[in-house]
Amino acid sequence: MTEKEYYSHVERTLKKSLVVLIIVLGILFMERESVLLWGFAAGLVVGIINAFFLSLRIDKMTLIAIHNQATANAFLFMGFGFRWGLIMLACYFAVKTGWFSLIGMMFGFLLPSILSTGEGIRDLLVCRGQAKRCN
Is 33 in a helix, a strand, or coil? Predict the structure, then answer.
């Protein structure tokens, strides 16, 4: 994957996640009592933040990997604790307050990963050698 393909992949994933978030917030405007949707929206926000920080970490790691592979691996795993800590904090908040559904939050956490995987499969099956058609 080239640098341009990587940035395009991350951009499409984040844009699709934001579109889903906007749709969910629009539904929440009418269905304010749905704890499941509130959980999904909160989980999606955390999932988008995690995906964004992971993409930044991977981008910087590739620059470091040119010089030293061991340092690049250590750099990648330094952000691991922050991202998991954010997820655990959101889950703890959902359990303690009861404002959000934990199941909804889990689906929200997973959506950017599912969208990213779908984009990757699309890139592999359809877009290789057909850049004009896929962008």
Answer: coil
